[in-house]
Description:
The structure holds two protein chains of two kinds. Chain A contains ten helices and no strands. By secondary structure, chain A is an all-alpha fold. In chain B, helix 2 (93-104) packs across helix 3 and helix 3 packs across helix 4. Chain B: This is ABC-2 type transport system ATP-binding protein.
Amino acid sequence: MKAYIAFTKKEWLESIRTYRFFILLAVFFIIGIMNPITAKITPELLSSLATEGITITIPEPTAMDSWLQFYKNVPQMGLIVLVIMFSGGMTGECSKGTFVNMVTKGLKRSTIILSKFTMSVCMWTISLALCFMISTYYTAYYWNIDGLEQILQSVACLWLFGVFLIAILLLMGAIVRSNYACLLLVGGVVVTLFLINMVPRLQEFNPIRLTSGNMSLITSEMAIADFVYSISITIILTVLSLLGAIMVFNKKKL
Amino acid sequence: MNILEVNEVSKAFGKQVILDGVNFHVPEHSVFGFLGQNGAGKTTTMKIILGLLQADQGVVMVNGERVTYGQTKTNRYIGYLPDVPEFYGYMKPLEYLALCGEITGMKKNECKLRTEELLDLVGLEKANKKIAGFSRGMKQRLGIAQALLSEPKLLVCDEPTSALDPIGRKEILDILYKVKDKTTVMFSTHILSDVERICDNIALIHQGKIQMQGDLVTIKTNHAKEGIEIEFSKIEDLKRFQKEAKDLANVFKGKEDSPLAIELKASNMNELSKVSLQILAQNDIVPVKFMCVKPTLEDLFMEIVKE
């Protein structure tokens, strides 16, 4: 336990001193501000483009447009930045050899994986919370917030998907040695999930629903009950990925 | 008692056999030199001892416990200095050693005292900057400090001096010699003068096997043949001598750097000198130099490696 706390503290220090956490915060801060603003000014931008003779009729933007931006930007930009930021966590230390001193001091390899998971999830949570709060604040400022419960449920789904991605990242980082290979494999997993999503019967079970079905949840097209399978599968896969990462890492040459 | 025993360890990477039944042991409280050329398998052996690599065959015992690959409990007895120690560059030495201490489960006060003591020992007490800005030599010192932090029974250093300048090398060797009373030091190297300076025991690995091992003094007296070196004033003298002494020595060679000198080696040193002097006297040759040559580790090393 002591070693776990020590190594988690080291992960924290690393994120601060290598500016990883700040970059993540900055990106999510910008996304947070952008969401409502893009929704607000898009019609004005478009109408300013309209020349004489052409009339563009655009419906007045609503809070929904702001959330639409949120659930487009965070899964796209946000998750990609998240994956890139954390992709070097395992492979970098493996190839540099910084694990050697730790492991030969008796640090359990499972502790390394769990510490990295803990710290990555913490940072993802803080970043997403920041982004969400800013978006909510400005959305409430320009329009109003209706159905906060659904909105929270939907952001929780998104959060869970991020956690799942982090676990996959650790698994792939334990398997391969190169940073790029790790990114490629994580990308491969996401692409596979999208491909599986083409089979309608499987959509209900697919973790990808957690990032694609958010708007349906807010607009009440779907209820949280429709996400139960997807959520369960995602949690199971996350746990399995972590166990797998520990098993693979235990046998890895350092 | 032996702190480390390596029995019949073999390891191959694909078809390339690196270790082929390696056997050696390290007695407690000694400085053990592990010799071999580049690529002879020194690092591989050390990594197997630390459980970082899996041996194909054989058993390694540290302090009487068997080493297992992956989860290595025996590592609590070992302090390890890798050939190129890597640290978290964004940390300062004190922070890094504190992290190491916490990982090994040391108490905070104990760790702090020990850290100060060690930084003093390795001469880094004033280096309060990030490790990223450290020179190679400083990293090597910090490496020794982290390896010694938990007061290990065995300190394993992988080529600790290879990349350092002469002063840095001497300082690292002095540190290793200093800690000998408290721990056992095993270090690999291909720099023979380092071995002669501080080692009590050695093992030499070549072509996957231990070619010789034991007490350095005994090895030197047993293995290497002593010899004499004679330098002549004229090339004719040398040729005459060579002709006369044809049957005398079993190793007989001209010296590369001076064409007028030759070296003779035989197992019976007294006999060799006596007969050589007789030949010189009978043929009326007055040499410029007549010298007994003591065997060096380098000769030994060369002899084994060239075979």
